[in-house]
């Protein structure tokens, strides 16, 4: 196990009706805020009315910026920064999914500097300050509600890039599982795939003596595998949603990678797919992960065997460990298909051949590798994308 420091300062407020508390939580940070949201689901569900009533009651004033698209865009981030600066706003409240929260985090970093926030996403400099943000989560998926990450797409070049900084941990995140009831099935499936991916990115590590966190990750994966069909069958199953939503936060709030080093190549590769084709992140991961696994399998066959046996209940066969590992991957693909996701690029409607371009962008023209479990150069990424075709 590696040395580590762990701190997650995000206050989680969880349960039925807890969004009613948002006014008081915001009031502890600022009296004048940016209210940031997506394309309309919060108005259709009535959440917008409840949130604004609570803000009003707490004496909070706000400026609104809706219209965040999935795979959130840099142009809207610039609009948000302008609004925050012009109106001297002291906080951003993000009401929505990972895209809204990530956009809010970008605005938070950009509102306190003179320069261009995109530079942080290009790795030119690191943020030293940010406005506080709070969130009301409407979809268990990205884990941004308690993560250090923000992922933004620049339409100029269709580059999708991430920043990680402790400065953008939300001050609070409000999680009411009832808010997930209105999710379309496809978004539920994408969310589940993303949460599973966050767990597996952490699971496949070269660090030894991490049996405790192995077990925690396996338990979280098994929980998701058993709960996903329940919420698919009954979208109003509060009990199942509660566990699923909390699992989504735990999967990405960094507790599960304490003492270990995660991989993250599949995320980097997927960001090239959703950056160019604007597909849902979770749907892209359901395609990339199986291909990545098949490519890196022999790097540590024992770890794959452990994952297959413990997570997917594959029967152990000491004489044929490769078959055990492959059976686990096959079960995972079957699970993704059972919740309505594809496992090949063609299933995402991607028929053209921009694999070389994606491999090139992902590795900065072969100037860097991606992943830690196995370091992948441009040719390796290209081969993985070909396996996903
Ligand atoms: O825009 P609205 O109308 O709200 O509709 C959204 C959107 O179309 C809809 N939706 C959300 N909650 C709903 C709902 N519809 C009905 N009822 C509800 N309760 O769902 C659609 C997808 O929303 P989005 O926010 O894009 O989903 P998600 O949470 O999966 O976020 C994806 C983004 O997060 C990034 C991804 O790359 C992607 O850009 N990620 C962020 C991470 C982080 N910051 O730590 C880590 C992740 O690995 C990921 O990369
Ligand atoms: Zn993800």
What does this protein look like?
- The chain is of the alpha/beta class and 389 residues long.
- The protein folds into two domains: 11-179, 3-Layer(aba) Sandwich (Rossmann fold); 183-388, Dehydroquinate synthase-like - alpha domain (Dehydroquinate synthase-like, alpha domain), CATH 1.20.1090.
- Helices cover 47% and strands 11% of the residues.
- The chain is built from 15 helices and eight strands.
- The chain has helices at residues 22-27, 41-44, 47-57, 74-87, 98-110, 118-121, 185-203, 211-233, 238-250, 265-277, 281-296, 301-312, 321-338, 355-362, 378-387; strands spanning 11-14, 32-37, 61-65, 91-96, 133-137, 149-154, 159-164, 172-175.
- It has a six-stranded parallel β-sheet, with helices on both faces. Strands 6-7 form a two-stranded antiparallel sheet.
- Strand 6 and strand 7 (159-164) form a beta hairpin.
- The protein binds 5,6-dihydroxy-NADP and zinc ion.
- 5,6-dihydroxy-NADP binds at residues 38-42, 45, 70-71, 96-100, 102, 138-139, 141-144, 147, 149-151, 179-180, 182-183, 187, 190-191, 194, 252, 267, 281-282.
- 5,6-dihydroxy-NADP binds next to helix 2, helix 5, strand 6, helix 7 and helix 11.
């Amino acid at each position: 196990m590696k040395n580590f420091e762990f701190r997650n300062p995000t206050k989680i407020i969880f349960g039925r009706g807890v969004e009613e508390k948002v006014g008081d939580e915001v009031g502890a940070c600022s009296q004048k805020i940016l209210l940031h949201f997506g394309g309309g689901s919060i108005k259709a569900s009535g959440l917008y009315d409840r949130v604004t009533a609570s803000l009003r009651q707490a004496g909070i004033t706000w400026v609104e910026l809706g219209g965040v698209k999935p795979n959130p865009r840099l142009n809207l981030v610039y609009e948000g920064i302008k609004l925050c600066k012009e109106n001297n706003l002291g906080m951003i409240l993000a009401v929505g999914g990972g895209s809204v929260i990530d956009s809010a985090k970008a605005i938070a970093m950009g509102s306190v500097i003179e320069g261009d926030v995109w530079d942080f996403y290009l790795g030119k400099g690191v943020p030293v300050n940010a406005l506080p943000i709070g969130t009301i989560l409407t979809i268990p998926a990205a884990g941004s509600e308690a993560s250090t990450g923000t992922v933004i797409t620049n339409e100029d070049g269709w580059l999708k890039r991430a920043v990680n900084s402790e400065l953008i941990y939300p001050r609070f995140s409000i999680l009411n599982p009832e808010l997930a009831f209105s999710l379309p099935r496809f978004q539920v499936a994408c969310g589940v795939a993303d949460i599973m991916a966050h767990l597996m990115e952490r699971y496949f590590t070269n660090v030894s003596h991490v049996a405790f966190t192995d077990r925690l990750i396996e338990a979280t994966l098994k929980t998701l595998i058993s709960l996903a069909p329940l919420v698919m069958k009954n979208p109003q199953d509060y009990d199942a949603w509660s566990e699923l939503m909390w699992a989504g936060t735990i999967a990405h709030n960094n507790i599960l990678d304490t003492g270990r080093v995660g991989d993250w190549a599949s995320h980097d590769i997927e960001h090239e797919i959703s950056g160019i084709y604007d597909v849902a992140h979770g749907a892209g991961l359901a395609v990339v992960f199986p291909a990545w696994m098949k490519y890196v399998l022999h790097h540590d066959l024992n770890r794959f065997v452990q994952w297959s046996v413990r997570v997917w209940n594959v029967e152990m066969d000491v004489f044929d460990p490769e078959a055990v590992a492959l059976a686990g991957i096959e079960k995972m693909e079957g699970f993704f298909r059972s919740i309505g996701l594809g496992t090949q690029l063609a299933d995402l409607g991607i028929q053209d051949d921009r694999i070389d371009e994606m491999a090139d962008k992902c590795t900065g023209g072969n100037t860097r590798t991606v992943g830690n479990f196995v370091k992948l150069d441009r040719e390796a990424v290209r081969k993985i994308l070909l396996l996903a075709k």
